[in-house]
Amino acid sequence: MVAFLCDRYRCTAQKMRFDYRLDYAFMQGRHIVFFAEVKDRPGLAFGFGDGYYISAQKVLMARYLTALTSLSCMLAIRCDDGLMRACDFRHHTQGAVWHGRNKPRDKDDKEPCCIFRWDNFYGFD
Length: 125
Known about the structure:
By secondary structure, the chain is an alpha+beta fold. It is built from 2 helices and 9 strands, in the order H-E-E-E-E-H-E-E-E-E-E. The chain has a single domain, classed as Trna Endonuclease, Chain: A, domain 1 (3-Layer(aba) Sandwich), CATH 3.40.1350. The strands form 2 sheets. It has a 6-stranded mixed β-sheet with strand order 1-2-3-5-6-9, with helices on both faces. The chain has a 3-stranded antiparallel β-sheet with strand order 4-8-7. It is globular.
């Protein structure tokens, strides 16, 4: 997915430190052209439920970076159909839920999550 975005936008990807909460800065030379959170979810059907759930902390960081830099921050996902889609974190969210994964080693992996409606996502030609 990252390689696809690099080819599509003629840039390179730099993995960001954990404390930024987002996955990548996409760059041309040393200049960042956009940020992205990249999610591969082969077990999730695109269009299932009321939208895509993502950590409110990631949404906060994405919007903060956009406000600070005027650069876009993309949420790129690939679901069970194998197609990659994206939306901008600037889209309005459709509320919030308490959500997370059920990990055997981390029973408390739940947190506030924002919901991005499926119709906010666009595909790539």
